[in-house]
Amino acid sequence: MSYSPIVPPPRFRLSDAVCDQLEQLIVDGTLRAGESLPSERDLAQKLNVSRPSLREALLRLEGSKLIQAKAGGGYVVANSTAPLIADPLAHLMARHRKAAGDILEMREGLEAVAVELAAVRATKTDIQSIKEALAELETAFSKDHPYDVADGGATLPQLDAAFHLRIADATHNIVLVHVMHGIHNLVQKSIEETYATFKKRNADLFYLVQQHRTIYEAIRKHDPGAARSALGTHLEFIRENASR
């Protein structure tokens, strides 16, 4: 779905129509958690509405916590689950080691569904996006000091987490997409712990990074069974090595 000029319906406030369309763009995944909305001027032009009507709609969406204002102006699609779930759990994980295993179990459940759906539903654009995330991860690992900050300021764990998030986006399941974006920081913290464990075992780390290509290839070939199996191998490898 894309932005469409709005024709004012009879006996219906224009701001209601704006709200409806923006909500639909969020529901169908056109606008994703953390994504910035176009500028007020551009958005008003895309929707063919006045800026006062647009502002009224944006304020209502902000009040519904579907979007939030950005510092410096503009709006971003709200990450609805992070403040309530992921952020407190990330703090808990830092203090209690058992939480790391629980997070891995959660990933086994959610990401198994994600890779299967992505293998079935991923578009050419989705597959290219996952491929680019994989390339960034592999390029960063190939450097002499892979634990240093990579180009663009991203670390290996951040690139790893971004790869898995691209897969979630490719599911086109809006609930799963919002959940995975909402717990992104939590998953990234778990991945940071994994890389800290592997830091002095470069051969194992190489295998860990290589597993992402196996997952990608299964999705590229639209093979959900192989994708789920590859993810299972990946997470079980993490589990086994975390206890060393």
UniProtKB/TrEMBL annotation:
UniProt xrefs under Pfam families: FCD, GntR
Chain ranges of the HTH gntR-type domain: 12-80
Superkingdom field: Bacteria
Record-linked CDD domains: WHTH_GntR (cd07377)
GO-annotated molecular function: DNA binding; DNA-binding transcription factor activity
Protein name as it appears in the record: Pyruvate dehydrogenase complex repressor
Lineage, top ranks: Bacteria, Pseudomonadati, Pseudomonadota, Betaproteobacteria, Burkholderiales
UniProt-listed PANTHER family: PYRUVATE DEHYDROGENASE COMPLEX REPRESSOR, TRANSCRIPTIONAL REGULATOR, GNTR FAMILY
Keyword flag Oxidoreductase: no
Organism in which the protein naturally occurs: Paraburkholderia rhizosphaerae
Function: Transcriptional repressor for the pyruvate dehydrogenase complex genes aceEF and lpd.
Swiss-Prot/TrEMBL keywords: DNA-binding, Repressor, Transcription, Transcription regulation
